[in-house]
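Notes for week 9. Today we move from apo structures to complexes. The key idea is that a small molecule is not decoration. When we ask for a structure prediction with zinc ion present, the ligand SMILES becomes part of the input, just like the chain. The input block below holds both the sequence and the ligand string. Read it once before you look at the output, and try to guess where the molecule might sit.
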Amino acid sequence: MKECPFCRENHGKSTMILENEYAISTAVDYFREGHCCVIIKKHKTSISQLEPEESIAVFDLISKTSKVLEIKYKATKTYMLVIGDQVEHLHFHLIPKHDTLCSMGIYCFGKLFETEGERHTSIERKEKLAQELRSLVKK
Ligand SMILES: [Zn+2]
């Protein structure tokens, strides 16, 4: 069995935005500026495997992370996608809807993968984003 990078990685506190008993949110800054992920703590590969209390806690983290992204980027909403083709460990991609991001709706993420993938941003950029987003929590 292939080793899971999300189980192996000790998600650094430096890029973490929020955490609860079941999940963390972290600055990724990969596909687009502001790109974050909510990653569940236990190794599961589908939303259907979440226990009810886990679902509530994970979605609470998704909501709170989206809130700070929308404040920081003056975004009208946050796009969310679950894929898991490259890393099966369940995680939720969050991208604030920037002014520069047209209303692609359902096509948004596909377009991002085609054109904006592999930004290879630095750990310093991720840490800076996480720090800014942490400062917006509870506002
Ligand atoms: Zn895993």
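The pocket of zinc ion is lined by residues 4, 6-7, 43, 89 (CB under 6 Å).
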